[in-house]
Amino acid sequence: MPKGLVVYDSKTGNTEKMAMAVSRGMKKRGLDTEVKRVENTSLTDLTDADAIVLGSPAYFSILSGNMKEFIDKSIALFPGKLKGKVGAAFASCDEACEMTLITLIAAMLWHEMIIVGRQSGGLGAISFGAPDDRCIAQCEAFGERIADITKAIAGK
What we know:
Elements: E1 3-8, H1 14-28, E2 32-37, H2 43-48, E3 51-59, E4 62-63, H3 65-73, E5 86-93, H4 98-110, E6 114-115, E7 125-128, H5 133-154
Parallel strand pairs: 1-2, 1-3, 3-5, 5-6, 5-7
Antiparallel strand pairs: 3-4
């Protein structure tokens, strides 16, 4: 059975709320999904997952130091150990989340992962400040899309 992993960093709780919503959507579509804070995530967690979703707060339009450190460690899996896995990203910020999403997605592309964007367009889910009900619904729908594509790729 395919497995999903949502890895996030959160200082204020905003990104954590988004992580939980994305995970709910993935689980709703029947994808066994684990949610982990970045500091509690191992490289083995990445290799064991079929879908990897990364979420970070944006600081000055870039991802958090904890998430950057984790991505830097993933070089041990390069090349090829994450190839063909589904990847997706989300971010919370006051403004300018797009660069954070691009940075997360760029790392996944280097690992030759298959990137999933939002169905309505866009690189991933974004929250400006605390996620409201609309954002939470979009995160859940994004999780459903990630699960559907992961199951289709995994053939299950």
